[in-house]
Amino acid sequence: MAKKPITLTVDGVVYTDDVEPRTLLVQYLREELGKTGTLVGCDTTNCGACTVHLDGRSIKSCTMFAVQADGHDVTTIEGIAAADGALHPMQKAFHESHALQCGFCTPGMIMQSIDLAQEHADPDEATVREHLEGNLCRCTGYQNIVKAVQAGAKEMVDGPAASTTEAGAA
Ligand code: FES
Ligand code: FES
Fold first, then answer.
1. Ligand 1 atom closest to Cα of 51?
2. Does residue 140 line the site of ligand 2, with CB under 6 A?
3. Which of 76, 145, 148, 159 would staple 94 via disulfide (CB 3.0–4.6 Å)?
4. Which ligand is nearest to the CA of 99?
5. For 27-36, how does the pLDDT look when each residue is reduced to its tens digit (9 = 90+)?
6. What is the mean pLDDT of the chain?
């Protein structure tokens, strides 16, 4: 199948590539750009492990083709820490609230939670659970994830995280 040229920004870097029209965005991110922090946990658009931001809003990158991201701005879990390595407030909150066990769902959970926090600075439990409906966790029982999202949302409003923990631990 003939490849199509695309140009997009991923985690602040502009990429131009030729991709097959059938290539999913998550495949492109992982296999072409090496952004393996974005995971694939299903083939039915159910799990949310592949969640990234497209122009600042969360999307499931297994549910869109790379060619559809042409001209857009994509942010992955690997692009949210500060330039000095300080964790994003939501990453820090997940870490401090023990909101992960195996960690497979965590990148998608964090990307979805940042999207939520942009609209709800002080979300109640019901709001968090509703917004995370499309993100599945097989380990935690969700209780600490809810706490983390509430803490992370507050910290996003209050200002940058003071943490100097190295990025990538999410
Ligand atoms: S891999 Fe995208 S929703 Fe499961
Ligand atoms: S921590 Fe294992 S799937 Fe969520």
1. 2
2. yes
3. 148
4. 2
5. 999 999 999 9
6. 93
d(CA 83, CA 134): 30
Whether pTM > 0.90 for this model: the answer is: yes
Token digits of residue 55? 């122009």
Domains of the chain, each with CATH number or no CATH:
4-79 (3.10.20.30), 89-158 (1.10.150.120)
The pairing of strands 4-10 and 73-75 is: parallel
Place of tokens 């803490």: 151
Contacts of 157 (CB under 8 A, 6+ apart): 117, 121, 122
**Three-state DSSP string of 22-77:** CCEHHHHHHHHCCCCCCCCCCCCCCCCCCEEEECCEEEECCCCEHHHHCCCEEECH
Q: Distance between CA atoms of 161 and 119, rounded to whole angstroms?
A: 19
* Backbone phi and psi for residue 147, each to the nearest 5 degrees, phi listed first: -60, -45
Q: How far apart are CA 22 and CA 43, in angstroms?
A: 15
